[in-house]
Amino acid sequence: MNEIMKSIPAYAIWSLLAIGSSTTVSMAQELRCQVEVNSQKIEGTNKSVFETLKSSIADYMNENRFSTATFAPTEKIDCRLYLTVSEYENDRIKGDLQVQLSRPVYNSTYTTTLLNFKDSKIDFEYREGDPLTFNETSQQSNLTAILDYYAYLFLGIDFDSFSPMGGQQFFDKAQSVVQAAQSTGEVGWKTFEDTKNRAAVLASFTDNNTSGIRRLMYDYHRKGLDEMVTSPDKGRAVITESLKEIQNVYKAAPMSVALSMFRDAKLDELVNLYSKAPQTERETAYEILQPIYPTDNERLDKIKKGDQSN
Predict the structure, then answer these.
(1) Structure confidence at residue 29 (pLDDT)
(2) pLDDT per residue over 133-168, tens digit each?
(3) Would you say 5 and 13 are in contact if contact means Cβ atoms under 8 Å apart?
(4) Which of 275-278's residues contact partners 24+ apart within 8 Å by CB, and which partners?
(5) How many CB atoms are located within 10 Å of the residue 143 CB?
């Protein structure tokens, strides 16, 4: 057991222990969230509201606690919110939100992307100076609902990458946010409203047909990338095997947003991972990915051919 625990990054160990413990301890906030607000499309208005909004979102994500897990300052989860404002009128802000989540690879300086997704259904009311108040049992505004949703999604995905289905409690909390928000009439929350809104993103992790993406998160990262420092061939072989989960998602739900999220987070990384792989392994990866991403032939061909510089 001790050897197993030594192979897991410190914050994952403490997070898992904190979940199962009722002991009162000093808890640190979980996220290290970088926030940017781009208002270049908005003309003829006081831009201070957007600076205030940026600070308020950053404070909300970085000062509120969204779990009972314990995180040292150096162990916080790295994430990014990049809001591009396209409309601003009568205190109503509309735009899109690029969300990114990453985690370190064990015993290396490499950081891997877990999530890279653009939410195009951002629409909320905000008056400069309005406080953003976190309440786990009651939604205060559509903006705080959006922030809560992504905080829980970040935690769920991150925990899944360290423990099989380890993020379940956070996906459950995200589901509660979605269900409450659906009754407000705000855009981006309704089931079947479109295939890439917040309800659809959450469903890609929780529906039986597509939840294999969560098993992939663990196998790809914990058993694959984290092992590659000491055994590149062994770790990469696990990653190749894990790709069958995305193949299963495609067969079950070819329109699932899980497929585009995986591509945007992982395809460039896979090109690098397979650059030195044996030909049979590269061909296996190519045969899995090509039917799913037929418009990404340039990158897929690099996977198939590998590094030909030598």
Answers:
(1) 87
(2) 999 988 889 999 999 999 999 999 999 999 999 999
(3) yes
(4) 275/302, 275/306, 275/307, 276/232, 276/306, 276/307, 277/236, 277/306
(5) 22
Tokens representing residue 145 in the block? 């609902």
Strand partners, 102: 78, 113
Cα gap 210→214, rounded to integer Å? 9
What residues contact residue 199 under an 8 Å CB cut-off, 6+ apart?
178, 182, 188, 189, 190, 191, 192, 193
Summarize the confidence of residues 173-186 as an average pLDDT.
95
CA separation for the pair 160, 16 (Å, rounded): 11
Report pLDDT digits (tens) over 205-244.
999 999 999 999 999 999 999 999 899 999 999 999 999 9
DSSP result, 78-144: EEEEEEEEEEEETTEEEEEEEEEEEEEPTTSS-EEEEEEEEEEEEEEE--TT------TTS---HHH
Output the pLDDT for position 46: 76
Q: Taking the model in full, what pTM does it have? A: 0.90
Residues contacting 280, CB < 8 A, separation 6+:
none
Which residues touch 94 (CB under 8 Å, ≥6 apart)?
A: 85, 86, 87, 88, 122, 123
